[in-house]
Amino acid sequence: MESHLESVKSFYDYLSETGKATDIFSNYNYSKFKDEIVEKYGLLEPVERGRYKCEDIKTILIELDKAIDNFQDGAAGVREEERHLQRIILRLFIKLTLIAPAKRSVIASIKKSDFTEEYKKLSINGINVNIPCGLSRDLCAALKYAKSKNKESVKEGDNLFEYLYKYKGKFRVESLNTWFYNIAQDFGVMENECRGKKTLAVEPIKNMVIQMMVDNMINPVFISKIAGLTLTMIESTYYPKDWSAKREEDINKCINKSIAQNDYYCYV
Question: Residue 149 maps to which CATH number?
Answer without folding.
Answer: 1.10.443.10
